[in-house]
Amino acid sequence: MARPPVYDDALRERLLEVTAEVVTRDGAAKAALRDIARSAGTSTSAIYTLFGGKGELLAAVIEHGFDSFAEAQRRAEPGGLRALGVAYREWAVAHPALYRLMFDGSLDDFAGCEPDPASASASLMPLQAAIAASGSTDVARDAVAVWAQVHGAVSLEFAGVAPPDADWDAVYGTVLDTIERRWRVTSDS
Predict the structure, then answer these.
(1) What does pTM read for this prediction?
(2) Distance (Å, whole) CA 64 – CA 69
(3) Any long-range contacts for 142-145 (C-beta under 8 Å, 24+ apart)?
């Protein structure tokens, strides 16, 4: 009797990355497991063994995205708010498919796709720590306000809705300058 194949972490990671790309390109409903498996150089058996099914695979992609994003934020945390903002954009630019899937809501109604909310929450902890260190009296509110500013700038950049000659490095720098000025005032008051 043949032994069942063993699937490693490298294959799991590859499937997560390929799934994000395929779903971003084709949409969740049209993304076929056989196409995902073929693009990752494996079989659908690997997907079923590692994840269970399409909904669970999609949930794992979202969790993977938030875990990767959270790690980038933790590495940037010692540098303060500006470093967190820079890391936010750098991560999004390096992982555009994951970024879009994490935040565009396209998987919200897909059957079986129920990512663990703890993954998303953990990714905000470095920002919340920086906001708390600034002297904020409402860390949750203020962290979401900062997040909305950096997220908005990155999302506009990705959507390509600005004038064609927009200098996104300068735009993003202005957003970070504004955040720093605001939080300097908060911590000094």
Answers:
(1) 0.85
(2) 8
(3) 142/186
